[in-house]
Write a structure and sequence with these properties.
The chain has 503 residues and is of the alpha+beta class. Helix content is 32%, strand content 14%. It has 4 domains: 2-61, no CATH class; 74-297, no CATH class; 318-354, no CATH class; 359-501, Roll (C8orf32 fold), CATH 3.10.620.30.
Length: 503
């Protein structure tokens, strides 16, 4: 009885092998798939262990790849796109769509820009519409298309991009919708770009958050094999995390074979200006590669820039704090204001706001570099300036001024920054100029405070048409006396328990 079972089992295994594995064998002993693609013995064993006998067809990888060891992927008869908004109706494990139109790799024109606020926002996310427009800008040819998605208005700024990429088989939607405002994930972006090339042969991924069953596994594995991107320091890939604009620039540069010339960029820092201090960002050079049009040459795998187009600064008209200096940009003229006073702010021959005192400008620049960082909002910078003045100086009796008197502000600010000691006028002047340094329409007063009408100075700033008090010296004094609950930062006049008299 036992012998009969053994014979039956042996016969069953022989029949399974005959049905699944090809009769021919490769010269090196590896099996050959039914499609003619070489598969190593190790990969074949792995396929058996997974009960997965689906092989890529040779055309999936493109010319010249079918003679190498093939990458296997687990399919089990199900579409890997079933859980993704990014699904393409015809995409299956063994049916990789390659766009008939490629991406432009010759001529390094810029393909990304900043917003109308003058910022690049490197750590901000990309929506699906923004990603589609970015990739669309890189297409090497025109493609006829039809309106596909119910949630994409034909007159929308991204409509042509979305419908064109849909026609190329590069992206998809769900239930007739594209979801243009939905944040794009890292996996979706890799999948989108993978449709412009054949997939590469790859080894198993080591990312714990990208299992074989993940819908984007083959695209991520292929992209890693091509050197488009890697995982994070903790060993993860984070496929479903939102893609940042900086990450998009880095990945696209790799896909396009573009590598920034760091020495050239360092020598020409003003060829593209953004509000943020991007020089300290991890993706700075790749951002410049993506946002500055330039001519280049490749030698030994390295890119050297020969010339560039001055991309300058682009934004709507207004004040912008850039690289520790305040500037005024005329959106219609496309240039920064120079040698002119606008809205009570004077801009010098270099286009920078100036107090009129080179000495004070120097103190303000150094202080700003010390207390502000690129990630701060304007409001956070104002708060940092207030705390700096409140906590960094010591009180010392100095000159007082008559109600309404002016002309003392610059000298008292210099006194405070240079000696680190001063009275209420010095405190107010130091904060006043720091607030204006970052673009606030601050006002400063020589007046009186309290029932005894004591000579005093403070700063006032309007928000939504309402004046607010900023009194660094009095808040410092109250904290020194143990009144920790006392706050005189951005306080409405009606909430102060004593009176301020301006004139």
């Amino acid at each position: 009885m036992k012998l009969t079972k053994i014979i039956a089992l042996t016969l069953a295994l022989w029949l399974m092998t005959a049905l699944v594995l090809p009769a021919a064998m490769a010269a090196d002993g590896a099996a050959i798939s039914p499609e003619g693609l070489f598969v190593s013995a190790e990969e074949e064993a792995l396929a058996w262990a997974r009960q997965d006998f689906t092989y890529y067809r040779p055309e999936t990888f493109g010319p010249g790849v079918s003679g190498t060891a093939a990458a296997l992927m687990q399919n089990s008869g199900t579409r890997l796109f079933s859980d993704s908004v990014y699904a393409l109706p015809s995409d299956t494990a063994g049916d990789h769509i390659v766009s008939p139109v490629s991406l432009k790799k010759a001529g390094h024109d810029n393909y990304m820009n900043g917003g109308t606020n003058g910022r690049f926002n490197p750590d901000g996310g990309l929506t699906r519409a923004e990603a589609a427009q970015t990739v669309y800008n890189l297409l090497a040819g025109a493609v006829p298309f039809e309106d596909v998605y119910t949630d994409v208005d034909a007159s929308g700024w991204y409509a042509s991009a979305v419908n064109t990429l849909a026609a190329l088989g590069v992206l998809g939607g769900r239930d007739g919708d594209f979801h243009p405002d939905r944040p794009l994930t890292r996996a979706e972006f890799v999948a989108m770009l993978s449709h412009f090339e054949a997939l590469a042969a790859y080894t198993d991924l080591v990312f714990p958050d990208v299992p074989l069953t993940h819908w984007a596994y083959p695209y991520i594995a292929s992209a890693v094999a091509k050197g488009w991107l890697n995982g994070f320091e903790d060993g993860s890939f984070r496929p479903d995390a939102g893609l940042t604009r900086a990450q998009a620039a880095v990945i696209l540069n790799r896909v396009l074979g573009r590598y920034p010339d760091k020495a050239y960029i360092d020598a020409n820092p003003d060829m593209r200006i953004f509000v943020e201090a991007l020089e300290n960002h991890w993706a700075y050079y790749d951002i410049m590669e993506a946002t500055v049009s330039h001519r280049e040459q490749l030698s030994g795998g390295a890119e050297s820039w020969l010339s560039h187009e001055d991309m300058g600064f682009t934004a709507v008209t207004g004040r912008y704090y850039i690289r520790n200096r305040l500037r005024y940009y005329d959106g219609e003229a496309g240039s920064f204001a120079r040698n002119v006073q606008i809205g009570g702010f004077y801009y010098d021959d270099q286009g920078f706001y100036s107090t009129g005192s080179a000495e004070l400008d120097g103190y303000l620049y150094d202080t700003a570099a010390e207390i502000f960082n690129a990630g701060m909002t304007k409001e956070e910078m104002l708060r940092a300036a207030f705390l700096y003045v409140r906590d960094s100086f010591a009180y010392l009796r100095r000159n007082s001024y008559a109600i309404g008197e002016t002309g003392w502000e610059i000298q008292d600010a210099i006194t405070m920054f240079s000696t680190r000691y001063g009275n209420c006028y010095c405190y107010a002047a130091a904060f006043y100029y720091l607030a204006r340094w970052i673009g606030y329409d601050a006002l400063i007063y020589a007046g009186t405070v309290g029932a005894n009408a004591s000579p005093h100075s403070w700063v006032e700033i309007y928000f939504d048409g309402k004046p607010y008090i900023f009194d660094t010296e009095l808040e410092m004094a109250r904290l020194r006396d143990g009144q920790t609950y006392f706050v005189l930062y951005m306080l409405p006049y009606e909430q102060v328990p004593w009176s301020y008299r301006r004139a």
